[in-house]
Amino acid sequence: MAVCFVNWQSDRGFPGELIHRMRLCILITLLAMLTLTAQTQPSPDSAGIRLFLSGDVMTGRGIDQVLPHPGAPRLHESFVTDARRYVELAERASGEISHPVSFDYIWGIALEAFGQLRPDLKVINLETSITSSEDFWPEKAVLYRMHPGNLPVLQAAGIHCVSLANNHSLDWGRQGLDETLSSLEGSGISLAGAGTNKAAAQAPAVFTVRGARLLVFALGFTGSGIPPLWEAGANRSGLFILPDYTDRSREAVITAIHRHARPEDIVIVSIHWGGNWGYAVSQAQREFARQLIDRGGVDLVHGHSSHHVKGMEVYKRKLILYGCGDLLTDYEGIGGHEAYRPDLSFLYFPTLSASNGNLLSLDLVPTRVRRFRLTRPDRADQAWLHRLLNRECAGVGLRFETLPEGALRLEVAN
User: Fold this and answer.
1) pLDDT tens digits for range 142-181
2) For 232, which of 188, 239, 363, 412 is 20 to 30 Å away at the CA?
3) What pLDDT score does 7 carry?
4) What's the distance, CA 201 to chain centroid?
5) What values do phi and psi take at 143, rounded to 5?
6) pLDDT tens for residues 181-202?
7) pLDDT-based confidence at residue 95 (cuts at 50, 70, 90)
8) How far, CA to CA in Å, does 214 sit from each of 4, 226, 292?
């Protein structure tokens, strides 16, 4: 900033040229001060709201067993009856896991990415009950639960909000769901997609970020494996569930959004939908997501359920993620579907305009699960993920720039 030193006692007797120079110096100083103020106080839009989003985070079963407070290991599966067996399979595949591990252990390179990209809000799909309930759902073949004493594993990553509208939140019955709800409430972590009744399950988690109000809704489809009986009722706990992609289902979501959202709000809808395997995105899914944007005022659709990364699109400057893959699971060492590379995923960091929710950019940090921990994939795996996204997104005109350490970036033109 320019600084001028002048004699302020009087103009009298000063030559006209000196007075002119003094006034010019003052003008330059004021302009410099205004410029500095503009540089140090960016507008909300210039900074944007940066989010962290992920696919499925499953901290139960084997992962629960290596955390500081493992729950009862007994399982009710056809082939595995003890959760510690999944620890053995992972160790056989990748090496010893010296446990108990610290609560931040499983997050690995994600913690480094959080420090570098500094997201304003972290939202995950939590695909496990937080309970010690023994009231398991008998029709379910696979049941996930994490002991409530291990809930600090979510706090260690600074998670702000979890979606519970998925096919594992009631694995241990409504007693298990109720304990999950109370555990999250006691931890200060917000939730969406589940509640003590239908109104609560359809209500959003609400945040204020960079002066903007941001709402997170969550819902799931029965086609993703959610039992219809898990739906919340007027006086019954449960989830926000839809049976199909029909107009009636879409209107149920839009009605819930309009019940809570203001015109200026930024709205995120987290959706558990589709099958576990396969890259195809049905036209019904695409139309459902686009109608949420066109008629529901949604700014971002956060899709998950597939065990692997799927494609995405930017529709009218709004991001639609069709399948974020599995971020953290205990599937390590379990054979089958290797061609889809379910051990590989991304940390998703979209940046949205604070004024209108439009996508400004998207940063993707590749991950690989190894010994129940997020690690950095090698170059060959990074290249595989890059090719996958370019292939799956070619039809919607998206191309990704490669950054150091294998990260990808999508810039959106104004």
Assistant:
1) 999 999 999 999 999 999 999 999 999 999 999 999 999 9
2) 188
3) 40
4) 19
5) -130, 130
6) 999 999 999 999 999 999 999 9
7) very high
8) 46, 27, 16
Share of the chain above pLDDT 70, in %: 88
Give the pLDDT score at 149: 98
277-310 burial, b if ≥16 CB within 10 A, otherwise e? eeeebeeebbebbbbbbeebbbbbbbbbbbbbbb
Cα of first residue to Cα of last residue in the chain, in angstroms, is: 32
E strands present in 86-204:
121-126, 129-130, 145-146, 161-163, 190-192, 194-195
Q: Tell me, what's the pLDDT at 266?
A: 98
Distance CA 96, CA 333 (A): 13
Q: Supply the pLDDT for residue 320.
A: 98
**What does the alpha-carbon distance between residue 238 and residue 173 come to, in Å, rounded to a whole number?**
10
**Torsion angle of the four alpha carbons 136, 142, 148, 151, in this order, in degrees rounded to the nearest 10:** -160
* Residue partners of 113: CB distance under 8 A and separation at least 6: 347, 349, 365
Residue 346: C-alpha distances to residues 121, 137, 215, 404 (Å) = 17, 31, 23, 15
pLDDT at 45 over 50: no
Say yes or no: domain 48-411 is CATH 3.60.21.10.
Answer: yes
Which band of pLDDT confidence, cut at 50, 70 and 90, is reported for residue 411?
A: confident
Q: Which amino acid is at 166?
A: N
**Crossing angle of helices 247-260 and 283-296, rounded to 10°:** 30
d(C-alpha 241, C-alpha 383), whole Å: 37
Per domain, the residue ranges of the chain are: 1-41, 48-411
Higher pLDDT, 40 or 51: 51
181-211 core/surface letters (b: 16 or more CB in 10 A; e: else)? bebbeeeebbbbbbbbebebbbbbbebebbe
Sign of CA dihedral 92, 96, 98, 104: negative
The answer to whether 29 touches 98, Cβ cutoff 8 Å, is no
CA 281/CA 285 separation, integer angstroms:
7
Query: Which run of H or E residues covers position 207?
Result: strand 205-209
How many C-beta atoms surround the C-beta of residue 240 within 10 A? 26
Please give the C-alpha separations between residue 339 and each of 14, 308, 336, 344, in angstroms, as whole numbers. Answer: 85, 10, 8, 11
**Within the chain, what is the greatest distance between any pair of CA atoms?**
101
61, 121, 231 from 146: Cα distances, Å: 7, 23, 22
Rg (CA), the chain: 25
